[in-house]
Automatic annotation (TrEMBL):
Record organism: Paenibacillus stellifer
Keyword Signal: yes
Domain Copper amine oxidase-like N-terminal: start-end pairs: 36-142
UniProt KW keywords: Signal
Domain Glycosyl hydrolase-like, residue spans: 181-501
Superkingdom of the organism of origin: Bacteria
Gene3D superfamilies attached to this UniProt entry: Copper amine oxidase-like, N-terminal domain, Glycosidases
Signal peptide: 1-27
InterPro entries membership: Cu_amine_oxidase-like_N (IPR012854), Divisome_Glycosyl_Hydrolase (IPR052177), GH (IPR017853), GHL10 (IPR003790), Mao_N_sf (IPR036582)
Identification of the protein by name: Glycosyl hydrolase-like 10 domain-containing protein
Length: 548
């Protein structure tokens, strides 16, 4: 859920960490092979990994191998790639590209090597609608059209560090599936996982992309998807309350010509997988620009219900949790989906109060009917009321729909509360996001919690195993299920420390989860980090683990 309020907390924690240089020496790596649908692609200059772990290839691979039109402008140092109605413009030295006229962030820009123009193959391929799979062990990049990617073969059993010896419990089950939760988040905001930016306004392409993504997730062993259906006060379904999301067409409020949510649910259920509708509760926008918002968006329709943050790092708009009508508007939006669609669950992330300063003094004075003495306690009461009311109204409509929340992974540090976790996190759910998850569990207001425990087994500031221990004790005997949110996005990332440079970190965490019957599965963030980026051969490791 990575452009979310938890980013601030993660950054604060990362500042406590010693800097660790990523371990690979790219210049010494073996030569990289490219394949398109199983056939080797010739390259006049060998592809290579740059310092950012981005694979660079010559333009010849794009023009001859991918059969795309290519034009290089020497004066502007810009390459234009065209194929099937899509146009990409990448300029040397720029950190963003133009994709069908829209600006999209780049990991690495165009450069010249051995007299050849080199471009980032993953970015170009994905924008042209191809799926990219990286096999690190074989130094092989496989590109696939929107046909189904071949099944992953079972790898040799990996050698793993020893996990503490604890009697194995009976594997818990999810009602209706007979399986432990093996979930994955699918982010739609910023077109991260689905749909691709290049599919804007192309319903058939969006459908193909989603089914291809589902097929790959199912092949790995996942049995549930948590799809972001309300990313920024908008929707991926026809709504009478909020506008269409811009991720579908490039323009907020524009009808994509079909019902994406109905399509996704149908395709997910065809594969025997669960579909959970993921809502960002109090986020209204992803930035401070309101010029592109539809007239029905809450920022324009109810400006008195929103607050704009003033910092450069966070100037987006938030729906004000202190206003009862604003809270009810979110509940109404969720209920519209519960009533209209055959979803398996409603899922909220940790977008409650932002962990930075929130200007709501006037709201506190105007809406403090209970006379709560401190702003902090008043804010927690607002969120408690929202969580309780939403759950009650969901279950009144459809009792079988699962209702759960994925809070920031640290409820409170023990330095603030002796009953908190043995951690030293820079922020906490209780103190900074005003989310009293303990109360939600104890009162039975939620069916499950899925704390985002996005740290390693060796990160002493907030160790994975210590946090799992803490959450297990919180749910024990309550009837509230516990799933663990895991950080697949960190595996192999250049900005992460050594323990994250192997997919084995995730496998070891899964093995630790197995030591508790209270842990009834996990949810991984996020889909493309597993199926497309596939760092440290994570796809094969998970396939082997889930099926063993």
């Amino acid at each position: 859920m990575k452009r979310k309020s938890w980013i601030i907390g993660l950054l604060l924690i990362v500042l406590m960490m010693p800097f660790v240089q990523p371990g690979a020496a790219h210049s010494a790596a073996a030569s990289i092979t490219l394949e398109l649908d199983g056939s080797t692609l010739a390259s006049e200059v060998p592809p290579y990994l740059n310092a950012k772990n981005v694979t660079m290839v010559p333009l010849g691979v794009i023009s001859k191998g991918l059969k795309a039109g290519v034009q290089w402008n020497q004066s502007t140092k810009t390459v234009t790639v065209t194929k099937g109605g899509d146009e990409l413009k990448l300029t040397s030295g720029k950190s963003s590209a133009q994709v069908n006229g829209a600006s999209v962030a780049l990991d690495s820009s165009v450069l010249i090597r051995q007299g050849r123009v080199m471009v980032p193959i993953r970015f170009v391929a994905e924008q042209l609608g191809l799926q990219v799979v990286w096999n690190k062990a074989e130094q092989l990049i496989s590109l696939y059209t929107l046909a189904e990617v071949p099944d992953v073969t079972t790898p040799v059993t990996p050698t793993v560090p020893t996990v503490p010896s604890v009697p194995s419990p009976t594997v818990p089950t999810i009602p209706g599936t007979g399986k432990a939760m093996k979930g994955v988040w699918i982010s739609t905001v910023f077109n991260l996982d689905w749909p691709s930016a290049s599919s804007a306004g192309k319903a058939d392409k969006q459908k193909q992309e989603y089914t291809a993504l589902l097929d790959k997730l199912q092949a790995v062993g996942f049995n549930a998807v948590f799809v972001q259906v309300r990313p920024s006060g908008d929707s991926l379904y026809p709504s009478a309350l909020v506008p269409w999301s811009k991720v579908l067409s490039g323009t907020q409020g524009k009808d994509p010509g079909y019902d994406p949510l109905a399509f996704m649910i149908e395709e997910t259920h065809k594969r025997g997988m669960q579909f959970h509708a993921w809502f960002n509760p109090f986020r209204a926008t992803t930035d401070g620009n309101t010029s592109q918002l539809a007239s029905s968006h809450i920022v324009k329709a109810h400006p008195d219900w929103v607050v704009q943050m003033s910092s450069k790092a966070d100037n987006k708009y938030y729906i004000n949790p202190g206003i009862p009508e604003a809270r009810q508007s979110i509940i109404d939006t969720v209920l519209e989906v519960v009533k209209g669609y055959d979803i398996d669950g409603v899922h909220l992330d940790d977008y409650f109060y932002p962990s930075s300063s929130f200007p709501d003094d006037s709201t506190y004075k105007a809406y403090n009917a209970k006379g709560i003495a401190s702003v902090a306690d008043w804010r927690r009461d607002n969120i408690n009321d929202f969580v309780q009311q939403l759950g009650a109204q969901i279950h009144a409509v459809k009792p079988a729909v699962s209702y759960g929340i994925s809070p920031f992974g640290v409820w409170r540090n023990s330095s603030k509360d002796s009953t908190g976790s043995d951690t030293k996190a820079g922020v906490s759910a209780y103190d900074d996001m005003y989310a009293d998850v303990r109360m939600w569990i104890q009162q039975g207001w939620v069916d499950y919690v899925a704390p985002q425990i996005y740290w390693s087994l060796s990160f002493n500031t907030a160790r994975y195993d210590k946090l799992v221990d803490w959450w297990v004790n919180e749910v024990k005997g309550t009837g509230v299920k516990l799933y663990i949110g895991q950080a697949a996005y960190k595996v192999g990332a250049a900005d992460q420390s050594a323990e994250w440079q192997s997919g084995q970190q995730i496998i070891n965490q899964l093995k630790y989860n197995e030591t508790y019957s209270e842990v009834q599965g996990s949810i991984m963030f996020r889909a493309n980090d597993i199926t497309v980026r596939n760092p440290g051969d994570l796809t094969s490791l998970l396939t082997f683990y889930f099926k063993s």
